[in-house]
Amino acid sequence: MDPIKDLREHFTGIVRLKYIAFLLEWDMQVYMPSGASQGRGEQSALLEGIIHQKLVSDKTAEIIKKAEGVSNPNLIDAAMLREAKRDYDRAVRVPLELVKEIAKTTTLGYKTWEKARAKSDFKMLKPVLEKLVSLKQQEADKIDIGPTRYDTMLDQFEPGAKSDWVLKIFNDLKPHLFRIIKKLDSSSNKPNQEILKKFYDPEKQWDFSVEVLKKLNYSFEFGRQDKSTHPFTTSLSSTDTRITTRIWENFLPACLFGTIHECGHALYEMGFDKEIHDTILADGTSLGIHESQSRLWENMVGRSREFWRYWYPILQKYFPENLKKFPEEEFYRSINSVQPSLIRVEADEVTYSLHIILRYEIEKELIEESIMVSELPQLWNQKMEELLGIIPPDDAKGVLQDVHWSGGGFGYFPTYALGNLYGAQIYSKALEKHPIFLEEFEKGEFSTLLSYLRENIHQYGKIYEPRDLLKNVTGEDLNSKYFIEYLERKFYPIYKI
Amino acid sequence: MDPIKDLREHFTGIVRLKYIAFLLEWDMQVYMPSGASQGRGEQSALLEGIIHQKLVSDKTAEIIKKAEGVSNPNLIDAAMLREAKRDYDRAVRVPLELVKEIAKTTTLGYKTWEKARAKSDFKMLKPVLEKLVSLKQQEADKIDIGPTRYDTMLDQFEPGAKSDWVLKIFNDLKPHLFRIIKKLDSSSNKPNQEILKKFYDPEKQWDFSVEVLKKLNYSFEFGRQDKSTHPFTTSLSSTDTRITTRIWENFLPACLFGTIHECGHALYEMGFDKEIHDTILADGTSLGIHESQSRLWENMVGRSREFWRYWYPILQKYFPENLKKFPEEEFYRSINSVQPSLIRVEADEVTYSLHIILRYEIEKELIEESIMVSELPQLWNQKMEELLGIIPPDDAKGVLQDVHWSGGGFGYFPTYALGNLYGAQIYSKALEKHPIFLEEFEKGEFSTLLSYLRENIHQYGKIYEPRDLLKNVTGEDLNSKYFIEYLERKFYPIYKI
Known about the structure:
Two copies of one chain form a homodimer. Chain A is mainly alpha-helical. Chain A has helices at residues 3-30, 37-55, 58-68, 75-92, 96-119, 122-143, 149-157, 163-185, 202-215, 252-270, 287-301, 305-318, 320-323, 328-334, 352-367, 376-388, 414-433, 437-442, 447-456, 466-474, 481-494; strands at 225-227, 233-237, 240-245. Chain A has two domains: 3-145, no CATH class; 146-497, Neurolysin, domain 3. In chain A, helix 8 runs parallel beside helix 21. In chain A, 44% of the residues are buried. Chain A binds chain B through residues 13, 16-17, 19-20, 23-24, 27, 31-36, 38-40, 42-43, 46-47, 50, 219-224, 226, 236-240, 242, 277-278, and chain B through 13, 16-17, 19-20, 23-24, 27, 31-36, 38-40, 42-43, 46-47, 50, 219-224, 226, 236-240, 242, 277-278.
C-alpha cells in the first residue's frame, strides 16, 4: 500500500488517455482524409468523456484523500498531489451536462468561426459566441477559484496568476513599447522584408528547417516534424514530441521561424526528467513558461546576429539565386523589421505584445460583462487604432482573425505576452551565467544554452509552479525590464539609432 | 426505450474505441518515431483493457438480453444482435488474467520473433512460442465453440467454418495444384521476371500506384496511402480507410501489386452501406471474404491481360529506360511467372495456396498436440519438400518467415487460401453476369465490376455470414473448381501450353 504510488499510477492512466486524444488531434490536423471529420469528432468526444469520467470518479477522490494522508511527501510527490487535486477540483465542480454543452458549442463555434472569417462577417459568429461566453461564465462560476471569473479562467492556463498582476505588468509594458516603436519609426534607415518575399522552393525550405532542427538538438528519435495549416507542438507520450510547420513559397520566415518556435516548445517537453515521464507532472508548468521557451528559441536565438553568422552561408547555398549576393547584415535586419500590422501571428517582436494586450483588455471586460459580444468588432478596431495606430479594413483582419474565443479559450491570450517577458528574463540570466553562448551560436553550437534550460527549467515539468520556477532561475519575480532592455539593445542598432 | 437502438449505440461505442486502437497501430507502423515504442505499447494495452472491460461488462449482458426479447427483428437488427452475442461470448468466457497474459506474451513473441528471424535461430523463439501455444489452447478451451480447439480458433477469423470442411477443400485442391505446376514446368517457353528486377525509381513507382488507385475508385476523400514495412489496410472509422504499400527499387511488383491488393481490401470497407457505418457490422464478414476482395483485384484484375492493355503504355512512359522497347505481352507474362519458392508473400497465384496448406496442416497438429513446438523446423522443411519440392536453406527462409504464430494467430492462415477460392468463384459469377468488365478494363474503367461487388458483397459488411453471403452471390457453397479453372485458363496460354 503506497498511496503516492497509487496516485501516480492512476493519473498516469489519465495522462495516457490524453496522449491518445492528442494523437487523434495530431492526425486530424496532419494526415486525416477530409471526409473523415465527423467520425473522428465522435471518437474524440467519446474519449474525452472517458477521460472526464475517470478524472471525476469516486476512485480519484479516494486516491487523492489517501495521498493527502501521507506525511512529509518529497518534492515530486507533493507536486503530484497538488496537480492531481487541481485537475480533480476543476473537473468535479463542473456538471457533466455543462461539460458536454461546452464541448458541443466549442465544436460549433470553431466551424462557425471558419465560415464567418471566410466571409468576414462577425454577425454570423455572434450567436454562438454569446452562448459560449455565457457557458464559460457558468463554468467559471462553478470552478470559482476567484477572485473574479476572469481570474478563474486565467488560472487554467497560468496557474497562480491573477488578473490584477497581469494588468499591472501590461500597463507597465505599454508605454515602453510605444516609446520604442516611435523611436524605431523615426529612423531614416529602416530594414525591410522584400528579400524574404521572393520565391523560395518549398522542398528546400523543408530541408533547411530539418537541418536547423538537428543542430538545435531536437531529437528525431523521440519526435518528428510534419506540415499542417497552423504549426503546433504536441506530445503523444514523454518519448514522442512532434512538431509541425507550414511552408509559404513566397515568404521565407513562415517555415523557418515556425519550425524554430515549435522546436522551442518541443525541447521543453523533451527535457522532462525521466522520473516524471508520462505522469501528471510531464507538462509545461504554464502556457506562459511554455511560450517563453518557444519565443526564446525563435526570437532571442533564431533572430540573433550570432545565429545567422553560422546559418546564413548555409542558407545562401540553399537559395543562391535569391541570397548569394545579399549581405548577411541586411538579411539579419530584414528578419527583424518592425512594423505595426493587423495580424497577430505575423507581428514582430516589438509590436506583438500590443496585440496581446488588446485581446486581454477586451476579453476581460467581456467576461466581466462590462461589454457585450455585439460590441466586439467596434471595440477591436478602436483599440487597434489606440495601440497600433491602424484600423482593420474588415473583421477577417480584425476581431475574427484568431480562433481562441470561438473555441472558448478565454484567459489564454495573456500567456503569449507573459511568454515574451519570462523568456527575456530567463535568457538574460542565462547569458549572465554563460556569456559563451553567443560565441557558440556563431559556430552552430546550441547545447550549452539547452543544457542550461534543461537543468533550470525543462527537467522540472510541473514540479514547480511558474512563479516559483522563475524565482528559482532568476532570483526575482517577473520583471518586464529585461524584455524592454532586450528590445532596446537589439533593435536600436538594427534601426541605426 | 428501443433495445435494438441501445444495442447498436453500445456496440458503436466499442467499435469507435477499436478505431482509436487502430489509429495507435497505424501510426506505430507508419509515422511513430523509433524511441516512442514503449509509451505507445502502454497506451495500446490501456485502451485494449478499456475495450475489453466495456465488452464484458454487466451492461453489455443486460443490453444483449433486452435485445433478445425483441420479436421479429429485421435483417440488420438480427445481424447486430448475432455479432454482439458472438463478440460478447468470446470475450466473457476468457478470464481477464488470461487476456493479459496472452497480450503480454504476444508482445514478447513478436519481439523475440524479430530477433530470431534476424539470426535465423528457431531455438530463440521456441520457449515463448511454447508458452503462446499453451495460452491459446487454454483460451480456446474457455471459449470452446468446438468441436475441437482448432475449430474454435478458426471460427474467430472465418465464422462458421469448420476444420473438417477446410481439410476437405484443401485436400481437393492439392492434386490439382500439383498437376498444374507440373504441366507449367513442362513448358519449353516459360516467362521470367528479369525485366521486373531492374531499377525502378521509387518516386515514380509511388506516383504510378496513386494513378492506379484513382482509376480503381479508391477514394482519397475517405482514405490515404502511406508507406510501411509490411503493407496493410486499416479502417479508422467507416469514412477513413487507409492503406499502405512498400517500394522496392529493384523489384517492381512489390509496390504495384501491394497497392492493388490493399486497394481491394479498402474498397470492401469503403463500400459498407451507410446504415451500418461505425456499427459492429461495419467489417468484413470474414477474413476469407476480405482476402477474396484483395486477391480478386490484385490477381484477377491487376495481373490480367486486359488490365495491362490500358496500363502498360502508361507504365512505359513512367519507366521508358526499362520498358520502352519491352513488349506488352512479355510484360504480362513476366508478372505471371510461376515458380515454387521459399517465401509465401512472394509466391505466385498458383503455388501460393500450397504455402497456406503447409501452414494449416502444421498449425492444426500443433494446436491438437499431435506435434510439439520443437518439431516445427524439421516438419516445415519436410512439408516444403513434399508440397513445393524445395528445402529452405535456413529457418529465416523457412519456419521463421511469418509473424502470425509468434503473435498467437493460429487459425488465421487458412483464410488466405479460402480468399483465393472465394475470389475466383465470385469473379466467375461476376463475369458471367457482366462479361463487359473485360472490355472496360482495356479502357481503364473498373466501376462496373466495383458496382457489382458493392451491390452483392461490400454493402452488407457482416450482415450475412460468409457462407450465406457466398450462396447469395454465387448460388452455391464454396467450390474450388472455379479457382482451378481460372488458373488453367489463365496460365496455360501464358506458358504456351
